[in-house]
Write a structure and sequence with these properties.
Blueprint: E1 3-7, H1 12-23, E2 27-32, H2 36-46, E3 49-52, H3 58-72, E4 77-80, H4 95-123, E5 126-131, H5 134-138, H6 144-164, E6 169-176, H7 189-197, H8 207-218, E7 229-232
Parallel strand pairs: 1-2, 1-4, 2-3, 4-5, 5-6, 6-7
Length: about 240
């Protein structure tokens, strides 16, 4: 049976990825940090194993990955979905907040990959999927740290694809546009309508649509696709 680990899988896009993968025959594990009730519900409904872990913390990630590998045996697909955002002027951004955004969005990929990649390399097989953002490609006013962190995700993805290709491991990135998740909860209806109007399709995307992209990139149908950034953004005018 194919196996998958979704880092940051209890809510939003991560939750839909867990659901999509388990529905398609994957034995899944996922991590969460603060959303215990959602994680327990998702685990009960899908059979996926839930692990509480601060994915930005190297030691916690090591402990969780060791337990996950002992349960799953191996990991075929690693989805690095952990993310955090911040809104505000760059000149008012504290060093602590800058470091936190890079830790959650970028270091979490390093942490999980560091412990999952060796067994993929030894098996000469695997797929790694990272999660960037349209703002990582275009930049966003008042989201400088988030944009920079998500741009770093793209650079890391492309570098790892070249490094791991000889070991039979594919590494790709999904770049979502404006998706209906908790990150939009602070926006007014007027703001949401304006964001929807900036998409060529005239609407906001859904977590399920991003999950479909992840399932495709993990599949054998994407067997010759690596080092790519797949936009799931409705052709957003960023």
């Amino acid at each position: 049976m194919k196996t998958a680990l979704i880092v940051g899988g209890s809510r939003g896009i991560g939750r839909e990825i867990v659901i999509k993968f388990t529905q398609n025959g994957y034995n899944c594990a996922f991590t969460y940090l603060n959303s215990g009730a959602e994680a327990r519900s998702l685990s009960k409904n899908t059979g996926a194993a839930a692990f509480k872990c601060d994915c930005a913390d190297y030691a916690q990630t090591e402990a969780s990955c060791k337990e996950i590998l002992s349960q799953l045996g191996h990991v075929d697909v690693l989805v690095c979905n952990a993310g955090a955002a911040s809104y505000g002027l760059f000149t008012e951004l504290s060093p602590k907040e800058w470091d936190r955004l890079f830790a959650v969005n970028v270091k979490s990929i390093y942490n999980a990959s560091h412990f999952i990649l060796p067994q993929m390399i030894s098996r000469k097989s695997g797929s790694v999927i990272t999660m960037s953002s349209i703002w990582g490609e275009a930049g966003a006013s008042c989201e400088a740290a988030y944009s920079a962190a998500k741009a770093a995700v793209i650079g890391l993805t492309k570098a790892l694809a070249k490094e791991l290709g000889p070991s039979g491991i594919r590494v790709n990135c999904i770049s979502p546009g404006v998706i209906n998740t908790q990150m939009l909860h602070g926006f007014s209806p007027e703001d949401l309508n304006e964001l929807a109007a900036q998409s060529a399709l005239g609407r906001i995307g859904t977590p399920d649509e991003v999950a479909n992209a992840a399932l495709f990139l993990a599949s054998t149908e994407a067997g010759f696709i690596t080092g790519q950034v797949l936009g799931v953004d409705g052709l957003f005018n960023a």
